[in-house]
Fold each of these.
Amino acid sequence: MNPFSAKHAGSVIGTRSGFDRVVFSGTLRHLADPAGPKRWLRAAGVRLKDFAAHAEAMTRRLKEASEAMARRTSRPILSVRSAAASK
């Protein structure tokens, strides 16, 4: 085990190894294009008039999944109410 992993063993949940570094890069081109979100919604079967309900449902699912992961990993759930607060 390398010194960094040994020092932070309580926080490390896994490691990746390989011949060299792994670099991920890219863009969500369909969403970066101004017409992209409409195309994405059409492909997802969401009508523009239903977007608000769809966005609220997706937000709720993301929040529930994030909170479930925090509970499973015994991480605290903190509410940060100020954009000026350090995160």
Amino acid sequence: MQEFTGLIYNWFELCRRDLPWRETSDPYHIWVSETILQQTQVKQGLPYYYRFISRFPDIKALAEASDDEVMKTWEGLGYYSRARNMQKAAKTVVDKHNGRFPDTYEEILKLAGVGPYTAAAVASIAFGLPFAVADGNVIRVLSRYCGILEAVDTPAGRKITAETADKILDPSNPGFHNQAMMEFGALCCIPRNPDCLNCPLNAGCYAFSNQLTGKLPVKANRITRKVRYLYFYISENDEDMIIEKRTGNDIWKNLYQFPLYESDHELSEIEILTNPVCEEFMQAIPSSLLEISPVRIHELTHQQIRARFVRLCRSNFHLPEDPRKVVRKEEIHKFAFPVLIRNFIHEKFIRADPEE
């Protein structure tokens, strides 16, 4: 495998991208970048990295920030548990490590939201510790090149890929090795239609030689999406509207939304206007119907959201009970919403984003 890693190192020297977290050994910056890049491509994640580091330049600033500040900074990136765990981890570092990012794999792994991959990446890149990463990019490269036929999302498959990644790790320069492996998977050995004819590894690649590139890595578990029917009620007048903060252990926790009615089936328009949430608003203060939006579909990893927005015009507001609040329409941009709701807000209520 020495020839394999040598070819990847040479490729990395010539083809690697200039990225800000590669210009520092600051474990905080590396941790932020690795967390953002979980489930997120570099092109999408890069502006969020700059925004996050600008707003929270060190771990103390993140630990001291409010939940709303963190969620607003993360707004639109998705997988919001990442942001919540980062803030929890930051508070742990401040409280238990005197504000110094832990410098051992074992202590990094104890931080909220940090798994073996992120711990290995931070430990190797920031501290030069010999821990191999095995993210999706690395797993794909190893599966194809080495001919790993075991399903990589099973315990046996994960064990094989982890052992293979450990075996080829260069302990003298683990940070460089890990970045080269991840970059090769991200740019060259891509999931669909890789340019195998021009790949520097094709001579020794099992998948290429056996025409199995499109079938490796093998995965046993297919993702099935649950369909959810969400109906958001926008109670508004010319100046104000009612929003509420999501609580509980569900999607979009700690983000804001409009008052919600969730159904186990798609509602007719009569049902949309006669369910308990709608009746609550219609009866409390006389309201008139402005709009029932068409269905908007939003895809998540394990869920498909089918949402409709119902706009109700009312003459005035009384102060609602928590978690609801009355906000000025001109200040709606200050709150963090899921992308699905944020897009509707921009279409209906915001002509130009005050932050742009």
